């Protein structure tokens, strides 16, 4: 195996290309858009397990430079009462980072380019065929390319997944909307890097004081019915503000003051996950990241799992022939990823329960969080790059 085509220049794609390069496989990344993803007001966490996987290929520093440590996640009820707190640290003592989504993408792309990875922007895969000896990819601009392997890192609406698993289930609607922003408001006494999650009476939200001043926030308005295509994107700034005002009015939290001090336009997006794909590979095509197992943002793990996949896949391809390498990769990844997706869906669905459920949660949560950290097993994952991969 000497050459791979990587479809998708999000998080998983460029990291896979860097990891494959370390494994002695030359990879070209094809990204449908004209550049790395822009900023839609979204920020995210790269967790210690994701940082560990980046460290395995010496790419952690590039990401760490655009983020800031976020050691604690605190949970509050709508009354302002603290329900508990969880650390973001892993077994090694380092902590999760928060960053703008666009900064993460830019940092990963810059690092891949610095290492000599070729990234073709504006290159959208439309078809691919796998034979015993090669895989051939067809792009919307008419370009045709062949390689030994095609890696589908093309996100939740993956075209490669449709080729690997024709007739597979469509992504599942997660019953919350997302909106987020960067507020100029500085909360008195706020601790930089302490992420506060608020179980509002009608909507879930979170906020985080940033080191540069100001406060980053997000909100998850519940939405039980799946909106029609374009409906959420067409929601205006004024409509988002009015909706957030209705949902958070009366909660004892700073969410509304943060929204007010956020330059517009506010935008929002729907969430879909992929609880299970029947196949992760077919012939010389394989899925990684959201294409294989998109998770709701509630898990806080989308980018971290994507990075883990990329590095583990490269390690398997370094040490094992096809198709054993792809089976070994799936064997190492599927159960873990699907468990995180299931946990994220449950968390998203439980964000705005009715009144009785709220009371029970507010009573139980402090007890549960004192006894058990439900995310500890996710963060404890580590990739041993030097250990030889073995067949599944
Ligand atoms: C708007 C938005 C906001 C998000 N906010 C958060 C958040 O706040 N917190 C969080 O944890 N996660 C968030 N996520 C999810 C997180 O970004 C993903 O879990 C993570 O990036 C997974 O990486 P990936 O590379 O698998 O997929 P992606 O990052 O989605 O990358 C896939 C890439 O493939 C490209 N592509 C798609 N089809 C083709 C094709 N046919 N040919 C070529 N290229 C193609 C896309 O343009 C994209 O660049 C968000 C995602 C989106 C889209």
Protein described:
- This protein has 392 residues and is of the alpha/beta class.
- It has one domain (3-171, 273-379): FAD/NAD(P)-binding domain (3-Layer(bba) Sandwich).
- 34% of the residues lie in helices and 25% in strands.
- It has twelve helices and 19 strands.
- The protein has helices at residues 12-22, 48-56, 60-64, 101-114, 159-164, 237-248, 255-260, 290-293, 302-319, 324-349, 355-371, 376-379, and strands at 3-7, 26-31, 43-46, 68-69, 72-77, 82-87, 97-100, 118-121, 125-130, 135-139, 144-147, 149-152, 172-183, 194-199, 204-209, 215-220, 268-273, 281-282, 285-287.
- The strands form four sheets. It has a seven-stranded mixed sheet. Strands 8-2-1-12-19-18 form a six-stranded mixed sheet. A three-stranded antiparallel sheet has the order 3-7-4.
- Helix 1 runs parallel beside helix 9 (302-319) and helix 9 packs antiparallel against helix 10 (324-349).
- The radius of gyration is 21 Å and the shape is globular.
- The model has no long low-confidence stretch (mean pLDDT 94).
- The site of flavin-adenine dinucleotide has 31 residues, from helix 1, strand 2, helix 8 and helix 9.
């Amino acid at each position: 195996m000497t050459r791979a085509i990587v479809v998708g220049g999000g998080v998983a794609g460029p990291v896979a290309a860097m990891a494959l390069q370390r494994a002695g496989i030359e990879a070209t990344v094809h990204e449908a858009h004209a550049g790395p993803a822009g900023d839609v007001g979204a920020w995210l966490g790269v967790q210690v397990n994701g940082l560990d996987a980046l460290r395995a290929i010496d790419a952690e520093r590039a990401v760490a430079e655009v983020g800031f440590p976020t050691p604690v996640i605190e949970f509050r009820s709508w009354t302002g009462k603290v329900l508990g707190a969880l650390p973001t640290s892993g077994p090694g003592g380092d902590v999760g980072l928060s960053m703008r989504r666009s900064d993460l993408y830019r940092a990963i792309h810059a690092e891949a380019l610095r290492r000599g990875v070729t990234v073709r922007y504006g290159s959208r895969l439309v078809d691919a065929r796998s034979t015993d000896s090669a895989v051939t990819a067809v792009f919307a601009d008419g370009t045709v390319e062949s390689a030994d392997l095609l890696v589908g890192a093309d996100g939740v609406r993956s075209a490669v997944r449709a080729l690997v698993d024709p007739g597979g289930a469509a992504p599942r609607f997660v019953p919350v909307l997302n909106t987020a922003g960067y507020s100029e408001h500085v909360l008195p006494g706020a601790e930089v890097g302490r992420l506060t999650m608020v179980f509002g009476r009608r909507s879930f939200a979170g906020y985080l004081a940033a080191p540069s001043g100001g406060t980053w926030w997000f909100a998850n308005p519940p939405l039980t019915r799946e909106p029609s295509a374009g409906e959420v994107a067409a929601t205006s700034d004024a409509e988002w503000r009015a909706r957030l005002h209705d949902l958070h009015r009366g909660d004892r939290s700073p969410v509304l003051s943060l929204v007010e001090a956020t330059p517009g336009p506010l935008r929002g997006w729907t969430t879909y996950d992929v609880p299970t794909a029947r196949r992760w590979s077919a012939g010389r095509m394989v899925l990684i990241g959201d294409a294989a197992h998109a998770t709701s943002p509630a898990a806080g793990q989308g980018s971290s799992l994507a990075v883990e996949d990329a590095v583990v896949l490269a390690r398997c391809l370094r040490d094992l022939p096809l198709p054993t390498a792809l089976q070994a990769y799936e064997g190492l990844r599927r159960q873990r990823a699907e468990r995180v997706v299931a946990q994220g869906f449950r968390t998203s669905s439980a964000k705005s329960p009715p009144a009785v459920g709220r009371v029970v949660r507010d009573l139980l949560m402090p007890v549960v969080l004192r006894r058990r950290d439900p995310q500890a097993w996710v963060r404890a994952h580590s990739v041993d790059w030097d250990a030889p991969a073995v067949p599944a």
